[in-house]
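ok so for the tutorial part 2 we go from a plain amino acid sequence to predicted structure tokens. step 1 is just haveing the sequence, like this:
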Amino acid sequence: MQVATGTVVEGKVVVEGVVLAEGSVVTILSREPDQPLLLSAQDEEELLAAMAEIERGEFVSAAELLESLRKYG
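step 2 — the prediction. this is what the tokens look like for a chain of 73 residues:
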């Protein structure tokens, strides 16, 4: 796992100084330019734990999530 910062250029996220393989799946967290992303130590720990779960394959796919939400109408 790696964390990188990028900029949107012509509708695409451009990350400089990081090599990503073609077709890599990435997660984007967006914030307002004038608002820093601040996490408490506990929030950061929870975020890193959740990311580790995803890397281990412990997640629900988007299709599974949407299917489960359909029963709630």
